[in-house]
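Table S7 (text form). Paired inputs.
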Amino acid sequence: MNWFIAVVKKYAVFDGRARRKEYWMYVLFYVLIAVGLAIVEGLVGSPGFLGMLLALGLLVPSIGVTIRRLHDTERSGWWILIGFVPLVGGIVLLVFMCLDGTGGPNKFGADPKSAPEP
């Protein structure tokens, strides 16, 4: 949960680097919260307002952590736009998110693996 909170605290930070663990732990807790809200909304009979609020509220942190993850693989944040290409774009973005980051400092900052964990 600390990884999720750390990403939300960096709400609009688009520079620097994010390691794989930070990105995937954020995604894991995002999905768990979304599924939990969907179950609650299904039981109550709500049309999905809470899920939409969650998605809207975490849109900017999600973009931020994705861009920082791309920076860790030595790619520009503009690569996030490849996700809009049908079928292939999402797969390419998934592969980029799974790749190991560059060892040592790169043009986007210091190696996040050398920093203390949140």
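Next pair, protein 2 of 2.
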Amino acid sequence: MGLDMNLFQARNESDLKEWFNLDYEAWQSQKESFVVGEWRKANAIHNWFVTNLMEGIDECQRVEVSDLDLKDLKNLCVRVLKDRSLALELLPPVSGFFFGSTEVDEWYFEDLQRTVSFCDKGLEAIKEGKTVFYQASW
């Protein structure tokens, strides 16, 4: 158990729902075609999505992510990576049920680096006419 977070791309939400209804083997074979990024226990990033896109409500709901959202998140990550003293101000870790560590340590900064890459992939998907969604579970 733990905080599992995903960024998906799809032509539309019905495509995404169709993929979620696949059995495990079909899911694994098609996973690369729609998963933009996967995090595990990157609670600061999850908190950003909950605060900025989910109106503070964290119920494992799926939410659409715009290009502006991805640019904002990427810019915050880049700022913190350049000046680590900004971490608690801009992207603070949060505690939660199986959310992992709240330390601002090397794992935290690795999550930010991966997030920059995922944002770039999501922005590319949007340029290709796809829709990007975020969803977490625990």
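The chain has a mean pLDDT of 92.
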